[in-house]
Amino acid sequence: MVKFLKQFEGQLVPEWKEAFVDYWKLKKDLKKIHLLNNEKTENKKQTNYSSSTLVSTINKYTSLGMKQREHKVIQVHQKLAASASKEYTYETELLEQFADTDAAIEFFACLDLQLNKVNQFFRTKEKEFLESGQSLKKQIEILIELKTAVKQQRAKGPSFQDTKEEDSISGTISCDEESVKDRTEQEQGLENSTDELDKNNMQCTESPTYGELGKSMRMRKEDGKFRSLSGRIINYQGKNLRIHIPMTNPTRTFSSITYLLWDDLVNQSSKKCGPDENKLHINRMKLHHAEKMIRGAFIELYKGLGYLKTYRHLNMLAFVKIMKKFDKVTNKQVLPIYIRVVESSYFNSSDKALKLADEVEELFIKHFAEDDRRKAMKYLKPTQRKESHSMTFFIGLFTGCFLALFVGYVIMAHITGMYRPKSNTVYMETVYPVLSMFSLLFLHFFLYGCNIFMWRKTRINYSFIFELSPTEELKYRDVFLICTTSMTAVVGVLFVHLSLMSKGYSYAQVQIIPGLLVLVFLLVLVCPFNIIYNSSRFRFLSVIRNIILSPLYKVLMLDFFMADQLCSQVPMLRNLEYVACYYITGSYKTLDYGYCMRTTYYRDLAYAVSFLPYYWRAMQCARRWFDEGHKSHLVNLGKYVSAMLAAGAKVAYEKEKSVGWLCLVIVMSSAATLYQLYWDFVKDWGLLQFHSKNPWLRDELMLQRKSIYFFSMGLNFILRLAWLQTVLPYNFGSVDYRVTGLFLAALEVVRRGQWNFYRLENEHLNNAGKFRAVKTVPLPFHEMDDED
Q1: Under 8 Å CB-to-CB from 276, ≥6 apart: which residues?
Q2: CA-to-CA distance for 102 and 33, rounded, in angstroms?
Q3: Residue 18: which of 120, 146, 90 has the closest Cα?
Q4: Total-model pTM
Q5: At a CB cut-off of 8 Å and minimum separation 6, what does 395 contact?
Q6: Does the N terminus or the C terminus of the chain have fewer Cβ atoms within 10 A?
Q7: Domain named EXS: which ranges (predicted)?
Q8: Which helix (H) or strand (E) holds 77?
């Protein structure tokens, strides 16, 4: 039977762990009482029989009084808190002597503290969710009104001016002079931009508000934080509404930039046009974006209410379990008295959250699921994919196949002498890059599977951090299956290729095989059919698209996490570029493997590939600084700029190996390494906190052994110095230099694998410190009052 403590820790909300009952601490205090009781029992056994007879006689005459006192072992007092919030706290008074009264007092003091903590946290979260619920109800009402107006406009037919436009409703632009684009801590990373409005629909008519439109989207800095004066306000049915659609894609980004340019034109022409009334159109596309945002907010609210329900249930169960243990240890009947108080406390008696959950469910079914409850539950309560034992079987099967084929490939390569310094140049220049590319890729993917396994074991909520859907996220078994299957196919094909060559087939006859292997993997990656983890493949492609266009797309955690992975895969990207050039240009037909290296534009592109991952990551830092206004993003940008400068010095040194370039490489690489080590340890991992309770680490650690953190820091430091191989080239015996390069590239991938774990551990602890268990979704409609 599973112990309750493990069951309790396995079911609690990870980000709210500190707000749950500290069952481990209560159990520890109870164990102290149990030990003292055992000592008292042994002392009582040594007393003589006469003393026992005397005590029994006294008890006989006072049995009535004892029976009356049995029901009053403790008394729990309810007191009004010192704050003005009218919250009650609980304090327990002992009415009967225990074996060790001091230990019992300490236990009940801790128990009261836990009860008060649970009540306070529940009240705070319930208030937060109730406010969100009221706000969402207003949002859905506004959305319904606007959608109804659009339908009515469509029924009337397009006017002469709108014949070429979508169905829309018109409103008057009002001026919002103090709209603030200021992030709260919970809204970091969520951009409050205005929606896309058709600038062609704005006409210069007479209204006193026209001259103020120039203030609408001007960005300025006040007190170190970005602020914007948003003029996207419509007056509809007596309501002033400001509409915010985040700039999450290039279309909206360009729309906002265009609006800024239009704003300047309006400023220049407002005096010439005179007072004017602006017409603003909200078409169906804008309403669709607003509806999508509101739907996401409903889902997150429902998820949070579900967490609150779990919080109530687990804490109630913890109180019952610990009081049962207390009664068993002390032989007292305290459980009914204290649990009666717990049942009547706020966290267990308040039903506001439960009612709100029912209302949210009804509203979602009605407005977002077309009254189809089953369809609504797919969004509100997505079911987890069940893991089957067959997957474990296939992982073992393909692992065995991969090892057998790999051993056969190594033996055949050794016999043919492919990997020696004076090996077959054609093979090493054309086929080996394919093997190297797939090896680095799936080694990285395998380490990601190991990361997932460790994140789940340490209760790090990586799905929430990466914003992954529970129905679509990859489990570690899925990752291992993909790795073993793919590498079995790769090594199998290359083994067949090498076997054909050893049997006398010419390069021209078998050279197409590695190219076809790469082509098959690319086709599987972009396959539009619902096969082979299609949702994960599409998400991966969308993340790569976001990285390539990083200044234009809003940067999410998964985006810059993936961009960091690409920074460790520069050798793989260069191999991919070379293989693509070799087969696309048709060089494989003539075995002219040096054609790409002789081509100027290819060499320039090869150098660009070395810079691109760092450039993309730097652009992401710039975009996050623009969105959030935190200077730390600019400092992080400097880290990637230093990496680009170091990479540029290495490229120049490879072209012209002189003492001057060598000195520059050493200086630039050393500076970049120190910069990166500081950021790894202090910012990304949150370590090297001198005044923490864990010296040189941090206060909260997910791993029990502190030595693991010091070992990881040392390993990260050593692997960061891999660039020294550029300055001090070294080959392992008679092994080809390309194999040495693959080994060093694999070490960087391993370093990134361990970096991933500590990066998400630190992110999880930041979320837990702020009790963030659900996303904060920006709402599209903001109703303005007269003061605004």
Answers
A1: 203, 204, 205, 206, 207, 209, 210, 270
A2: 9
A3: 120
A4: 0.82
A5: 477, 480, 481, 484
A6: N
A7: 597-788
A8: strand 74-80
